[in-house]
Amino acid sequence: MESSASVAKPLKLNYKRTMLIGFAFFGILLLWQVYDSWCPTLLTQLFTKNFGISDEKQVQYLVGVMMAIDNLAALILLPIFGRLSDKTRTPIGKRMPYILAGTAVCAIAFPFIPLFYHWNNVAGVISMMLITVIFAMMYRNPAVALMPDVTPKPLRSKANGIINIMGYIGGAFATVLGIFFVLSDYLGTAVDKNGDPKPFTWAHGNIWAIEAPFLIGAALMVISAVVLFLTVRENELEAKLKEEMERGEEEAEVADKVTEDAPLSKANRNMLLLILGAEFFWFMADNGIGTFMVNYTVYLLKTSTASAMVNTIVGGVGSVLGFALGGMIASKIGRKWTLFGGLGLSLLAYIAWIVLTFTVGAEVGKFPIWLYVVWFVKGFGMSLVHVNSFPMVVELCPNSKIGRYTGYYYASSMAAQTITPIALGSLLLVPNMTWQYLPVYGAICLFISGVIFFFVKNVKNNKTTFKKGLEALDTDE
Fold it and tell me: Which CATH number fits domain 13-458: 3.40.50.1110, 1.20.1250.20, 3.30.1240.10, 3.40.50.970?
């Protein structure tokens, strides 16, 4: 029988260590924010120029296909690298070799994307995108799996909030880079006095205006990996935290207890499938909108891409607020209802966007203020979703299979992100289907996600005692 001292001992989150692990996610979102923000517009310009097409809507299907390739690669590679890293044993840990190798190749290939664009080389751009994507997959799963590797299950929502804040700092930094170097002027998307985009010319841009965000992003990705390598000793932490991790297994928020060798119980399997199904549709919404938001800004609102970047920052502020609060809210009402509330809040934001689009509208050449508010609310709502969804998935596996279940989580999200750019790009080919219907697509997908997630069993952990106040901020090892 356990002693009362052992039972009463409160769990505490090591904030310092969690923030250091967050440098991995800093590098991930920094890379993808630059990639997702600019590659659709770069590809639009390349395809319209080289294929002799005057209407940018006619190439969105091709843009969607290209933007889906990275997600298709992720769908295949993330589970593979997850399982491989689970089984890897090296002097520097099981995740670190993949993180370092993936970072090195990505950092070399990534800056060549805008360089080949500047040279009007379609094959070069696509080749560098593919290399970046493949080695980012080597990096991503092991980097994300690091947090649950060294964090007891009841603390993972709070830890995931910190990890995501670090990631969004990286994403925001990439966005600021895009604004600072006035990428929109290089791309020729500034508007004339009539609100129409100015004609594009290949020669007018300064290569450093487009190269700098990619180059600096690659450099910061390397720095973040080096910080992670120098400060997080995987093998030492695994031995040191063994007792805490075992206690976390006992206090997990699962329908049935998870054991090392036994297969998932029926109840836990149903939870996993429902979570992954709902995740698929919320990523269909969020990634579909995010992929085409710059084009929405340029071709419907007829304003500069800098406005879209400011909007991304506003949404990021809402997200950071949600990441900071999401774990605390979940500790009060449970992860299910926190996540479900986030879905509902995001759906309301999409509905407001639809209503305001078809009533108030927007002045040509100006980014509407109300859209910043919508994006802030959506960012807050979706952060409540993301901060709790990944912990819910890895809650259902033993610690020896975290990489595998991280792969399941990303397989679902990447399947959605593979399909949604193609689906949305194809819808834009339908007669009378304009950029105005972008939020309608998002709202439908989010509604389906909420219906599926409603049936996830609610399991609230009432067994765990957490440190509170200043005591909770103690970072002693």
Answer: 1.20.1250.20
